[in-house]
Design goal:
This protein is α/β, with parallel strands linked by helices. It has two domains: 153 residues, Rossmann fold; 183 residues, NAD(P)-binding Rossmann-like Domain (Rossmann fold, 3-Layer(aba) Sandwich), CATH 3.40.50.720. Helix content is 45%, strand content 13%. The chain contains 17 helices and twelve strands. The strands form three sheets. The chain has a six-stranded parallel β-sheet with strand order 3-2-1-4-5-6, with helices on both faces. Strands 10-9-11-12 form a four-stranded parallel β-sheet, sandwiched between helices. Strand 4, helix 5 and strand 5 form a beta-alpha-beta unit. The longest helix is centred in the middle third of the chain and has 31 residues. It is globular. The C terminus is likely disordered.
Length: 432
């Protein structure tokens, strides 16, 4: 059993803290947002993730999971700190490590006074080189001594998908640690002793690059499937069936996990990680035409969706699903948010139904993103599907939220299903 501090109570931090405490470790969740700390202390989750609130409640009640805003207390009471704060895109598309740097400075300041052994683990997503060239010197300066056997800095990328994060934690393809050697990595592997996943040690730059490569690959698969779907529709074919058949080749075509043509990709990971890689390549004059094209391809798919809506001639729109994926309240870079913003800007009368999104529970960068792009979201959300049906002449199905409502029987107007109508010639549009 280890004593662990997890810095950052967002999606990754909350899931990590809850799962580690469930597996027997003593975990302190740390965040500068008092509302998040109070939520965890009260046994509730500050983020929407299936199964997470029950897990947090159970672990808080058992005394294995606590939360605080006090970095000093968290470091003094633990032997290992996982940093899971956000690394959003800066204005020029580069990855921002400011939040991680602030945690490193605060954590190092405590270790400067405590003179105790400590392992610092970067779980946040950062480009190769940032840990080695920026964070390591920053930690040494804050601690007041060079990195040694008693002060360890390594990274442990996460591969968690929102809405399936707990399952992904428990059934990880592997546990990856970037460290100077296997001895340093062992302290991190001990955190995952209850999982059967393969444990892999590599250097910190390679570990960071694996994370980016995975997300770039996922983004590429979504964009590729959507472009194939759009072409298939133009030829009078069914893009979804094309990709379903392509994915039957498990020997060469890898995995069907993201090869599902439908609507655009979004969320807090894929867009910013692709953007960061493309920006880095641009700065170093490295041609990565495919990577650089992913976001523009995704934007083109969004424009196709807007044209389909425009071509109906309807102005009263009901949008089903707002978060980037059903079952989460994460609105950051959600294609549904971008679509809603565009429709409002073009004078459409819009209402939105998404039971996972409650304005009162949005926090941090998630709330900031909504305030910038949909500042009047509270006035657009409706609590019941029936209110959407009463308002709309056109029902736009954006996510799998639509699978949980009876739109086929309860709505008599026109329906546009963005999960398939952008990529298949066999339209699911229902005309009144």
């Amino acid at each position: 059993m280890k004593k662990v501090a997890v810095f950052g109570m967002g999606y990754v931090g909350c899931v990590t803290a809850a799962c580690m405490s469930r597996d027997g470790h003593r975990v302190i969740g740390v965040d500068i947002d008092q509302a998040k700390v109070d939520s965890i202390a009260g046994g509730t989750s500050p983020v929407e993730e299936p199964g997470l609130e029950a897990l947090i409640s159970e672990q808080v009640a058992a005394g294995r999971l606590t939360a605080t805003c006090d970095v000093d207390q968290a470091v003094r009471d633990t032997e290992l700190g996982l940093i899971a704060v956000g690394t959003p895109s800066s204005d020029d598309g580069a990855v921002s490590s400011q939040a991680v740097e602030r945690v490193i400075e605060s954590l190092g300041g405590v270790l400067n006074q405590e003179k105790k052994p400590y392992t610092v683990v970067i779980r946040s997503t950062l480009l190769p080189g940032i840990l080695e060239e920026r964070l390591a010197p920053l930690l040494e300066e804050a601690v007041g001594r060079a990195m040694s056997e008693d002060i360890v800095l390594c990274n442990n990328p996460e591969f968690l998908r929102e809405t399936t994060a707990i399952r992904d934690y428990d059934q990880a393809p592997f546990v990856l640690v970037g460290a100077a050697d296997s001895a340093q990595a062992q302290a991190v592997f001990d955190l995952y002793s209850k999982t059967s996943a393969e444990q892999i040690v590599t250097d910190t730059r390679t570990a960071a690059m694996v994370k980016y490569s995975c997300n770039a690959f996922h983004a590429m698969k979504v964009a590729f499937a959507n472009e194939i779907g759009a072409l298939a529709k133009a030829f009078g074919a069914d893009g979804q069936e094309v990709m379903q058949l392509l994915c039957r080749d498990h020997k060469l075509n890898i995995s069907p996990a993201y090869l599902r043509p439908g609507f655009a990709f979004g969320g807090s990971c894929l867009p910013k990680d692709v953007r960061a890689l493309a920006r880095h390549a641009q700065r170093h004059a490295i041609d990565v035409d495919l990577l650089a094209s992913l976001l523009s391809s995704n934007d083109a798919h969004l424009r196709r969706a807007h044209r389909l809506i425009q071509n109906t001639g309807k102005k009263a729109i009901g949008l089903v699903g707002l978060s980037f994926k059903a079952g989460t309240d994460d609105l950051r870079e959600s294609p549904q948010v971008v679509l809603a913003e565009t429709l409002l800007g073009r004078g459409y009368d819009l209402r939105i139904y998404d039971p996972g999104v409650m304005v009162s529970r949005l926090r941090g960068t998630n709330l900031a993103y909504v305030d910038e792009h949909l500042p009047h979201l509270a006035a657009l959300l409706v609590p019941k599907p029936s209110m959407l049906y009463e308002h709309a002449d056109l029902l736009v199905l954006g996510t799998e939220v639509a699978s949980g409502i009876n739109w086929r029987s309860d709505f008599s107007g026109e329906v546009l299903d963005l999960r398939r109508d952008l990529v298949t010639a066999r339209s699911s549009m229902a005309v009144s």
